[in-house]
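Class, discuss our next protein.
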Amino acid sequence: MGIRIVYIAEIVGKAGIWCVKQGLPELKKSEKPDLVIANGDGTTGGAGLGRQHAGYLRKLGIDVITGGDSIFFKKDLVEGMDTVPYVLRPANFPLQSPGRGWRFAQAGRERVAVVSMLGQAGFSRVHGDNPFAALHPLCDRLRQETPYIVVDFHAAATAEKQAFFRHADGRVSAVIGSHGRVQTADPSILPNGCGVITDAGRTGSLDSVGGTDPEVHIREYLSRMPDWSKDAWTRPALQGVVIDLDDSGKTAAIRSFSHDCGEPPQQDRV
């Protein structure tokens, strides 16, 4: 029979949360997934994931929330990581880091290993261990329990993502690229059955800079003065990928989606 997984692209700000609230019920109705994964690295204020938002996304129907370079930006989540086992920080973070980088999630009668990994290039504030070196030993361990392994590879460099995809082919079921927040038109299946996409996109405002207000970023580039991100609400959309896995754990099909969520009411923008 195999299983179907819906992966929701990085949720950015209040608009992203609103898109999940509006769009996920219909997406579940139409796609009938066995498991829903979402990247939550930009959920709270465009950078990081607050504990309250993590719990709310769980209530909205997301089974596993993956992170990235910003996963520890919100103190309340860091201090309570042990109470939210459905939230993953990168598996190639040091052992001393709070939380876990992978977990088994139930998908119908099957168990799926969901893994969060961080790339090496382009991150000046956060550095993990080498994800290439970490992947194979972890997969050997996970494959003793399940043939279904899905990796969220949060990386900035396209070349690193492409190399990692091929390094993972034959070891995992799928690798979903995140962090770029721009959906790429390249979902594909590699020779040994690994489904991949360079970047799943973002859930939130599409007429924005990575889901946040363009004017803030323009001021930063002009002045070199850092500023807090500001929510953007123009053209909100729910993006991501649908992955079908066969009984052997290989990807049988992978396709991206981008659903317009309409115009949000003014009261939801507060």
